[in-house]
Description:
Two copies of one chain form a homodimer. Chain A is mainly α. Chain A has helices at 3-9, 12-37, 46-63, 69-73, 77-95, 98-103, 105-130, 141-150, 156-162, 169-195, 203-239, 245-265, 270-283, 291-320, 323-327, 331-362, 372-381, 387-397, 406-436, 468-476, 480-498, 505-509, 513-526, 537-540.
Amino acid sequence: MVLQSVAAAWEESDHMHVWALVLIVTLLLLCIVLGHLLEESRFFNEATIAILLGLVSGALFIASGGSQTTSLLHFDTEIFFIYLLPPIIFNAGFSVKKKQFFRNFFPIILYGVVGVFVSTAVITAAAKITFPRFGIRKLTIADYLALGTIFSATDSVCVLQILNQDETPLLYSLVFGEGVVNDATTVVLFRAFQTFNVAEFSAGVYLNILLNFVYLLLASTALGVGVGLLSAYTIKRLYLGKHSTDREIAVMILMAYLSYIMAEMAQLSSILTVFFCGIVMSHYTWHNVTESSRITTRHAFATMSFIAETFIFLYVGLDGVEMTKWKQTHSTEALGMFSVLLIATLVGRAAFVFPISAIANRTRGSNNRITIRHQIIIWWSGLMRGAVSIALAYSQFSQSGDTQNPEHATVIATTMAVVLFSTLAFGSVSKPIIEENGLAAPLLSGGSYSGGSMDFDLALPISSLTSGPSVTALLAAPSGTAHRLWRAFDNKFMRPSFGGFGFSPIEREEGTETSHRVRRSDSTRLVPYQAPDPPTPSKAADPPILE
Amino acid sequence: MVLQSVAAAWEESDHMHVWALVLIVTLLLLCIVLGHLLEESRFFNEATIAILLGLVSGALFIASGGSQTTSLLHFDTEIFFIYLLPPIIFNAGFSVKKKQFFRNFFPIILYGVVGVFVSTAVITAAAKITFPRFGIRKLTIADYLALGTIFSATDSVCVLQILNQDETPLLYSLVFGEGVVNDATTVVLFRAFQTFNVAEFSAGVYLNILLNFVYLLLASTALGVGVGLLSAYTIKRLYLGKHSTDREIAVMILMAYLSYIMAEMAQLSSILTVFFCGIVMSHYTWHNVTESSRITTRHAFATMSFIAETFIFLYVGLDGVEMTKWKQTHSTEALGMFSVLLIATLVGRAAFVFPISAIANRTRGSNNRITIRHQIIIWWSGLMRGAVSIALAYSQFSQSGDTQNPEHATVIATTMAVVLFSTLAFGSVSKPIIEENGLAAPLLSGGSYSGGSMDFDLALPISSLTSGPSVTALLAAPSGTAHRLWRAFDNKFMRPSFGGFGFSPIEREEGTETSHRVRRSDSTRLVPYQAPDPPTPSKAADPPILE
């Protein structure tokens, strides 16, 4: 509107900014349309399409003589962590099948904590031993440890693109759950390596890292749960019987975001915080709002997450062709480092997935095993490295995006190469591998999950109506008692204050199976034909339409 | 997550940034809660609450020794125009009662175009004559003309807070419609005064301004309509019978925003563009998507607009206590200038509202007059000056937020004072005035509108079922023929390509009154009690729940 008049006074970069926005929004739209058209394809998913589109348009931009490349193409870690990541992780928590997640808590924690340590050790060792042969001599031990952490950070966003919560619920909850915990662990380790004098390797340093880790885990979770409960309480208390749709939705969005940035401010793991905030909000807050707000939040959160995801992959693609980091890189050296890191990542992940699965299986019933096929998929689908690795690499090896040191530039370029290769190559064959292993829902070996619909009952009314077999399966599981205790506690102490399923007077009327069936057939009638689930995670988040 | 680790490497300002985000999100939440609690109050609305909260917390921040005041409190014109304004204006177009708007097109254009010229002339003259007496000697004629424009820019956002589309549809469409056109006119004039050598006052300059204006009006509208139609076509063509909720919603959001930033890039009036894009999207695109996407978009757009509005007022409040501009200001001078500008604004607006209303009434039926009471409200509710005025003032009188020239600093401070005073004082007495004039819906004199529900029929299925009287009233109106012609054209040429009401096969089944009634009672049963409309505009946008 007025900007153009203002632009005259502003520097040119501000107008460039609008230009870049137009480009990015157009590319996002292209990604969505292409994603739709290529939905049937086995080798493409939204992530690979976005990265490829980013690479191509970035290359075109440079070819057309764009000299302001850096400002447009450069990956901005702040935009990533402050604006793009929160909606994705929040929506993951908001739409995750909570029962599945908590039932697999033990293996998830093992993969996510012990796994990072194992993987970091393998990658650090591999890099430390081989890199000097490629002429890298100035990296410190802290740099190598940081490298190990950087390549142990799985890409939770990419995982969401490949695994489908409804088709492979066990795998989804294991791999995605690992991703969230992995992130927290990665942060602690990365910070520890930056803060402590790791050359010492004293017991004190280790104890410090351990205590820090436990504190981070507990404090981050508590903050997320706290903010989530506050939102439930606020909406229940203030808006009881006097709903205002916009305010409800606004309070949910703002409090979700508040949990994330408060964790940032308190130097906690904001991913863990916002993930648990999402879980609590879907368990309590979501049930305290009007029907329209429920539908709106489900879809709006999923859409925000979807846009942010696509944006991130586009961004990685655009940054991939940004030239300064490639110019300073010697290609033979880089190729060697690239191979070492890639192989180390593969080996480092195998080194913990298979042993940990074996340990975890000892606590699981015979019908509940993580089979060898599952283990292969878990190993494979956690191999992709993504935006988090890039952001960490920039943080360790550049000063505010500027890489003076040629060795550091080489490391960043190599990181980018691993990210691009792993996402494009590993990512595009993951779907075929999962299908060929017969791991899509109908063929899933081992009755290891209680059925997709079952998991909804913490979040959605439908579940309480599922019939015998899956309930039995659930109760047979080791976590059955814990779950019963939690339900009792929830009903007696939590729900009176914070609402939750059954809070809304309207819903109570409909607690019987009959009325549910009526509603279900209703919604089937009213909602146009839905395409088979696309590989996007957000799709899985769609609740049964509650009219 | 990782930011804290990164923060060590970054400058302190980046961590400040997170800190500021936490503060602003918390304040937004406070505004929403207070807005809810004070909903019954006649003197408070969300705008005044947000401004007061901004002022108080800004003052507290400074009192607590915040030395980084500028970065936190300073009003950033880019954030305002690129991120906050688009959702507000888009939602206004998306939820505006189209029939009412187009029926009042003639007076709206007169107020919005001729009105700005009259008001600018009055304010420029008043300032030019009196300011030298307050010791202001260095302002050029271009500065004075810019001042005239700045204080002729009505605050469309604030208007939305005070008038309710359902209670006072005629007033709402006149004042808000004027606001949108006013903005376009203000931009052209402001730019003309910056670009052309206005001291010449030659016929060529005038012709240039006129041509530029017509071009801007037509091109901006065409761009908005074009992007809106493209979105309808894309969704209808690609997703026909194969809906994916997230993609649909994402395409709507992204294309709406694209229209705005494309207009920015092409130096058009992006407000006009995004407004018409919103109208077209609600007429076509919205009907081409699934039920859940319809509910989601209605509420999500309204919520985004609601948050952006609250943010803007908070922002103005925070900027209000930012000290640098007050320090350079001599209080006696500023008080004189403040009074002159305030009186000139009052007089300048009166000078066109009453004559233009008289002219417009000549074309209107006797039951369709803009009564003198209406005219008073139109005059009064357009008196508030808001964020647009502040942004323009910064643009004219500062170099990237820095005011070296003390006269310029005084002008900016005075602008801020007028904005704060007009929003707080005029804004808080507007609701009482409207109520005491008996202009809320049930008492509205003159059958000048065909009823709230009638206007929905372009956007929502309900209307085709409203009964006799209002249809008669509509057809009796002068624009009846134009409207019939448009409907015929729309049915024959537009809807086959772009969809629109009745496009979805499911809706077609339900075109009978009976099934509609069933659905309506259904939704009444399912949706919890809705509070009486709050003064927020977004509330008015709520569609009848389509299950």
